[in-house]
Amino acid sequence: MTPGARTQAAIELLDQIVAAxxxxxxxxxxxxxxxxxxxRYAGSKDRRAVRxxxxxxxxxxxxxxxxxxxxxxAVADQDPAIAATFDGSAHGPAPISADEPRAEAGVAPxxxxxxxxxxxxxxxxxSALVERAPLDVRVNSLATTRAAVLEEWPDxxxxxxAPLGIRLPNGTPVEQSELYRAGLVEVQDEGSxxxxxxxxxxxxxxxxxxxxxxGGKTLQLAAAMENQGALLACDIDRxxxxxxxxxxxxxxxxxxxxxxxxxxxxxxMLSDWAAKADGVLIDAPCSGTGTWRRNPEARWRLTxxxxxxxxxxxVQVLEIGARLVKPGGRLxxxxxxxxxxxxxxxxxxxxxxxxxxSVEPSGPAIATPHGSGRRLDPATHGTDxxxxxxxxxxx
Length: 395
What we know:
395 residues, 9-stranded mixed beta sheet
């Protein structure tokens, strides 16, 4: 592909990504994969170059751009080399007109930027939300040690804070490695590892991962429990939960029971666990504002209405989880969001509804105290953004 053809491909992809953001369609990574699946002539260098152009444009634009061309023009205005590819060649984009619309630079749409500011994030911390994320993996302590994995990956470094974390060069094909195939590592951001440790899982306990998804934190809990005790992984999303079983088999995590829940019937379907769990982990559905480094187009998908629906879901899962905790047991609430509406305010509202529950001084030691919990953010801690709080049930 010529430089112009690469830019034109990026424009076409950005058009698809903008449309998908408006309609709730596929994520950018999926659209990029589909695009190149029908264009076999594009080599690996072409695919990499186009992908970098696409994500540069996504990260640059705060509000949703009017078109893929408008998004790329905003990048071209900052980079003469990209501007030169708008040359009107056979496979390249048409020459630039000075009066053409450009995507507006920023971190997020205006309403969302105001919400982040109100949640205590200054300009620098907001800007870091759309920078490129590092590549972290978690060592599976059921099968090996971090020292042993580091010997096998000489270009890797220990993660700065997570005891089982390893940081790899971006682009490392982790899932094609023998270490991954053997179940020795799992891809997991260091921040996710740190907040997953907040439950302080111990061998022999009865634990519930209430919003398990594909099971990243479930596997982390099983390893901390040394495969001793009972671990129930639940979700309402069949497709995501089905991904847990092969991951657990690869990791050698044998104590996990998966349970698909019907929306609205969760309490009834979990009645056998009522007031029996030593601990419940709630990695709640949320806006994902803390993970924009990995999914920067997600900020174009979030609306005030969707945020309202998400906060209502968070109230619901907190109530479901609280019923499972035995007297004196603990509940850890996590969101990969930095909005107070999903974090500190949710915990404050829960405590106002449940007299006798208390806040435990638990969570990542490096995290910043925030409300009744603790918070990680990319600018301060170099991790994805998270809010975590540990709550103790009355005896």
